[in-house]
Protein: Type II secretion system protein I
Amino acid sequence: MKAQRGMTLLEVLVALVVFALAGLALLQTTALQASGIGRMEEKVLANWLADNQQVQLRLDKVWPEKSWSGKSVTFAGEEWYLRWRGVDTEISQLRALDVEVRRKKEDTAALISLRSYVVRE
Structure:
């Protein structure tokens, strides 16, 4: 008569622990990826807003002031705060234009800062 072979209770428990740890690692990785995607979407939207503001100032032929100007806008169903200013360069007819985008006016750090240059006509 053949002896029946099977897994012991200890082997089953070890296998369950291994699968549980693998499941937790997978869950943590998925959560990190989801939050990263949300952050990336926020950065892309902020970049579009900064770019749009720079284009609008160019179309309006505005010579950027050296002090900060700002406004709140609604974009993609969310409120955003934009601010911009001119920065002198070594060439008097050329001024840097810095645009920053924040979620709220009170936020200490900008989500995105974008610099371009404007030529005085």
